[in-house]
Amino acid sequence: MRITGVDVGGTHTDIIAFDTASGEIAVHKIPSTPHDHSVGLVDGVSAAVGDGHLDFLAHGTTIATNALLQHDGAPTGLITTAGFRDILHIARHQRPLHYSIRQQIPWQDQALIKRRHRKVVRERVDSRGDVLTPLDEDAVREAAVQLAEQGVESVVIAFLNSYRNPEHELRAAELVHEVFPAAFVTTSSGVSPQFREYERFTAAAVNGFVGPTVQRYIDKLGSRLAAAGLDAELRIMRSNGGAATPRFAADYPVTLLMSGPAAGVLAGAHVGNACGRENLVTFDVGGTSADIGIVTGRAIMESSPRDTWIAGLPIVVPMIDVHTVGAGGGSVAYVDNGGAFRVGPRSAGAAPGPACYGQGGTEPTVTDANLVLGRLRADRTLAGSTSLRPELAVAALRTLGAPLGMTPEQTAAGVLTIVNHNMANAIRTRTIQKGKDPRTFTLVAFGGAGPLHAAEVAASLGLPEVLVPLYPGITSAMGLLASDLKYDLLRTMFLLGDEVRGAELDTVFTALDAEAREHLVADGVADEDMSFERYADCRYLGQGYELRVPLDDGMLDAEAVSRCWKRFHQLHAEEYGHAFPDSPIELINVRVIARGRLPKLPAFSVDADPDAAEAVVATDTALFKVDDELRELPTTFYERSKLGAGATLEGPAVVLQMDSTTVIPPGTQAEVLDTGDILIRIGGKR
Asked: The pTM is what?
């Protein structure tokens, strides 16, 4: 079987192909095609697999994310309960900046659904799911006709309390399809069947806003793959770390948001676990940003409803917790109006790019700083195609540093110090500020720029070691081949602790299990490849947000419920530093996570060769800070493809490869593991 993972980014499309029969691996990286990402995807896959047959293709895409961030979605309409037309506008009392009178309010200044496209109909379901006012079907038909006449492409149906009883929303969707068959229709209960009206309405609005764009892309991709003779089983990465069929992804595109970074976290977990590490910080640094994820022995961390914001909007769909900071290879260094030296979040992007690219860029970037300090080499291209011009980098850094009385080299060192601290602060927000000791974690560094900065970032935080995957520049594509089909099903309960009965929960879980099994059977998953996990979302009475508590498999009795409460107290203490064992607990939601096993990329291996001498391509000098002094030190440069398992590298050293560059600073030691991954020990031997 030949399996392939393709991650389409804004600058490059990364491809990894693996033949399970022969063990052959093909890695390919080509420029993305922003006008139509399916063109670059198909061209790249064709180049990677040649004339070979392709059985399985996992795809990560930024189509939905870009449409939302750039506010480039479809004209969208809303049909909602009379009296609730402006939920999307009013939102909650929080504002991005509490005391500013000039701030922009994303949900108002860039509304996904204009007020003239928000229609109301008479209907009402109460908080228990009982129908108080029947649905006015004629009003739904009239609203749909009006929206069609106004040029709307997508219709969102969001009724009050539909998470308890979706009957009215489902019937309204049928009526819209009858009179407006061309519409892309979304129901809020289908996207996010849980309480919190504003968040549920917003998730549905985002789904409707990006839906037609994603649907057209998936249809075009399928046609282009077929035309190229690549008749593979296609699966698309979702933000929850699972894959989905093209049909599901097209119907629920809101679940694709941030799926690229999610694949990176999966890849980091795959690499770390293969090397025997459980507690991991994934560190994915590209041209524009650094994405931080956390993996523990228990699980990959997922976002909570209070943390999941994209483009200033709350997105209450299951999502791996990825924290993004504007720090990458293209981040621009500058002096602000107050005279402070800053780096990012503004980026030079792919065009014009860093000054050293010679494409017209004149502002100094992180890549320019690495080149001037000797950590990148002018005789090597980046990503296999981009040549570097040191004189342009020196000129850009001289222009920045001269008014500050700094040489280009000192300026470059300052740029790296600032950007490394920015990245370290991002990791602190996900470790120290959440009660996790970074000294017990391993940093897994990937992306084009991650291995350049990882060792120095780890040292500043006290992380003891860094793992650099065999193919760091295409690691997110590897993560696509570490995923499974995954469905999250949820039902809101609102039960106090003494009201919870195991038999009642069993009835609900049985129904959710059956629904999840239907999804997996429809996707062609065999029974032996299915797995199911049960959780309860709990909180203390009076709290605003919940913690997810794993439940026992099988029938739930009083003892199982009691164990759930004990686990909740323990999780609360871990998350917040304290627990209230005598306080009543609310069970808000129950959920089932269903997985269907997909083909996987195995752990890699490389031949043993402890002698690194043949891998040396140059001995030169590079600049490093030692005891807060910038020093020019002899540095050995290695070709990664020639390094065998067991090879040890003493810092300062630099490892070169097509898709990334790994820096091993002074005072550290690196070892090539059996898997081909490089383990950098901060502080030397252990």
From this structure: 0.90
